[in-house]
């Protein structure tokens, strides 16, 4: 899994591969088609990583149950130093390009920093692949610990309590993403004020569900948030990387093949459409996407800590129905 997820993200976000070139080509007809193609690419490249995560979970569970999943998580985290280095390269190269532009350096230097920046966008997506895969396994291991500590013998999806939890849990990553993206679009002071809003998802949701709806419903919430959160977190960096590198691909028209030159120079209609897509992607790349890893892990940790209390005093709502 540590090989498959980053490799696919490399293919989806590199400007030397056809997916990004297709997104760049879609800019011919405006920003709307650019956004549509970018979103479609992100959704499409969720498929194989999810299969890879599923196979890893199945094999690990078959060998040693939940303990096997925990060991698999530790095994994936052994590459964390490489993942951190890869992820750190992107902001460094991006800021180097910004410094070169503000300092008024020569066009040749700017071309080199743009090439490094494009590579940085790709490596950032690869680093997020490591983070998402490990977050999925960590959350599943914590989910198993919660079920054990809460004394739940089985999680039956056909039970109304659990099914309600699944639906609510699957909604939470979208609610969380909506609030984080909205905070980016506000002014600086307003953004600071709204930045506290997502704590409703992470801190209060497990407490409210566990206290009023019980441990079974909370198990469904954790499972639902894990399932939907991982998929949204995988699609976001792929989409954003494709938008960003499609813009870089068009900007490098003077040093690339004829296909790129036909898209027009910097400042053309194609380039303006690509800039719009890149601007839309910034909140996904820097806020919503990475924060979903924290969402699914923090909810699982909090539920594990309060599991004995929920088991003893939970289900207050169902006691009066």
UniProtKB/TrEMBL annotation:
Please provide the record's keywords in A-Z order. Answer: Ion transport, Magnesium, Membrane, Translocase, Transmembrane, Transmembrane helix, Transport
InterPro entries (UniProt xref): PPase-energised_H-pump
Named from the GO MF annotations, one term is: diphosphate hydrolysis-driven proton transmembrane transporter activity
**Pfam families according to UniProt:** H_PPase
Q: Where does it sit, as one GO cellular component term?
A: membrane
Q: Does the keyword Nucleotide-binding apply?
A: no
Highest taxon in the source lineage: Eukaryota
- The main enzyme category here is translocase
The EC number(s) attached to this protein equal 7.1.3.1
Subcellular localization(s) per the UniProt record = Endomembrane system
Q: Which residues cross the membrane?
A: 35-59, 66-86, 125-146, 158-176
Q: How does it sit in the membrane?
A: Multi-pass membrane protein
UniProt KW Membrane keyword: yes
Q: What protein am I looking at? A: H(+)-exporting diphosphatase
